Amino acid sequence: MSTADDSSGNVGTDPTVHDLNAPFNAGDQAYIIVSAAMVLLMVPGIAFLYSGLARRKSALSLIWVTVMSFSVVVFQWYFWGYSLALSNTATNGFIGNLDKFGLRNTLGEPSPGSPLIPELLYSFYQMQFCAVTAALVIGATAERGRVVPAMVFTFFWATLVYCPLAYWAWGANGWAFKYGVLDYAGGGPVEIGSGVSALAYSWVLGRRNEKMMLNFRPHNISLITLGTILLWFGWLGFNGGSAFGANLRATMACWNSCLTAMFAAMTWCLLDYRLAKKWSLVGWCSGTISGLVAATPAAGVITPWASIILGVVAGVACNFGTKIKFMIGIDDAIEVFSEHGIGGIVGLIFNALSAPEYIIGPDGVNMGAAGGWLNHNYRQRYIQVANILAACAYTFFMSAIIVKAIDLVPGLHLRASSEAELLGMDDDPARRVRRDYLAWTPAERDPKEDGVVVVPQHGIAGHQDLAESARLRAPGTGSSSEHHPPHPPQ
Q1: 233 phi and psi, to 5 degrees?
Q2: What is the tens place of the pLDDT at every residue in 411-436?
Q3: How is 186-245 classified by DSSP, letter by letter?
Q4: What are the boundaries of the signal sequence (predicted)?
Q5: The domain 26-245+331-348+378-408: what is its CATH number?
């Protein structure tokens, strides 16, 4: 491939003199740009998924906190996140330096992840990974966490948790990378990083008030399904694009992702059927996501037949993993740890058991890889387990420290008030009560005038008390508000 050289024989880096695109294949660049856009779509997918899983009175706040976390990550990644996570000039094995601060020195250089694409594109693609991981973590705020402190947490978490994990696995001098860890698309940084961080956040935040958990159920199954489909579509860019080119390894990763997801979905549905004696759409969605999670570190590493086994194992492990939060007493409301944390661990372990070189090599860059057990590289299991233990321990304790430190700052306490938790995290008090599907008032022929606060006649008594107190505090009480007894007959 022709390149524009300077007088010293090196590839030029001045765009006014040299064609910086010359060393790179346009098709590979186009594929990764599209893949980055697909991964970006996973953020609203997570927002819809979380919104559907929550009760209606807190659904909008979960969408807001998820998409706003993306705004925080874009700034953090541009500011110093990319440099700390993937700078190729850092000499330590823990975290990068600030050589790429503000995207300096990234215009036309080959990326540290692959010489197939330029570093500017690589940094943009990797930003989506950090954004998706942060969006997953922030589900820990569900139904009782304040949103502004969660955004402060997102910035520091991306800096002190995600960036080191990414550097370990993918940095040129990261200790896990040099140790030989096989982590294709983020079993450590993304899946363990999100699942274990959410567990730590939930632990510090505390359990939801159990008196408010009566008749709890996901409020919108259609949103859950829509979010799952958007995630599935984005995951093909997540796993397929991690081959960093339009090549056979990318195609294999897409195949393996679908195989693992669908076998995990069937497994989860069968496990749920044995208890409920009916088929569950939420179970299908949960199984699909657990399979895609397990495929993240393994899709470009293991064989298709191993992906089928991985799907079954991930479906079983993640399904039974939903019981862990009851055993340890941590209210992981959206099941981030049971699906992402456990699924990522299972996928990383499978890399040691399969990983033949003929799956890893077709990207045109990693020919001659050591592989796993199918290549008789039996020490790979110890390497994978060491990485899992280090990632889990560091992620949990560092995330817990960040959460607790933020909680101690005046004005940034993490937990919403009991009143806000009871009414819901979305709107003003009157709107919150009227949005609760357990609190309702029979329709009347004539519409109410503006400013009228209607106290629900059916539902939770605590809601009615709070709505009545809001009515009494409202301006003009007595002339513009309609009064109902606080505890009408049920």
Answers
A1: -60, -45
A2: 999 998 777 777 777 653 433 434 44
A3: -IIIIIIHHHHHHHHHHHHH-PPPGGG-TT---S-HHHHHHHHHHHHHHHHHHHHGGGSS
A4: none
A5: 1.10.3430.10
5 three-state secondary structure:
strand
Answer yes or no: are the C-beta atoms of 70 and 135 closer than 8 Å.
Answer: yes
pLDDT of residue 490: 39
What the block records as the tokens of 470 is 């809001």
| Structural contact between residues 212 and 322, judged by C-beta atoms closer than 8 angstroms | no
End-to-end CA separation in angstroms for the chain: 79
Long-range CB pairs of 362-370, under 8 A, 24+ apart, other chains included: 362/247, 362/248, 362/249, 362/252, 363/114, 363/116, 363/243, 363/244, 363/245, 363/247, 363/248, 363/249, 363/250, 363/300, 364/116, 364/245, 364/247, 365/114, 365/115, 365/116, 365/244, 370/180
CA distance 126 to 190: 11
CB atoms < 10 A from the CB of 434, how many? 18
pTM metric for this prediction:
0.83
* 427 Rama sector, left if φ>0, alpha if ψ -120 to 50, beta otherwise: beta
Residue 43 to residue 148: CA distance in whole angstroms:
19
Our CA dihedral for 128, 136, 50, 416, rounded to 10 degrees, sits at: -120
Q: How far apart are CA 211 and CA 215, in angstroms?
A: 10
Give the C-alpha separation, 453 to 431, whole Å.
9
**Which residue positions in the chain have pLDDT lower than 50?**
1-10, 428-441, 458, 477-490
Q: How far is CA 260 from CA 309, 347, 387, 437, in A?
A: 8, 10, 22, 37
Residues 267, 315: contact at Cβ < 8 Å? yes
Q: Give the helix/strand (H/E) hosting 263.
A: helix 248-276
Q: Are 95 and 167 in contact (CB under 8 A)?
A: yes
pLDDT at 10: 44
CB 362 within 8 A of CB 378: no
In terms of phi and psi (left: phi > 0; alpha: psi -120 to 50; beta: otherwise), the region of 78 is alpha
Supply the pLDDT for residue 471: 59
Which pLDDT belongs to residue 2? 35
For residue range 148-200, list pLDDT tens digits in order. 999 999 999 999 999 999 999 999 999 999 999 999 999 999 999 999 999 99
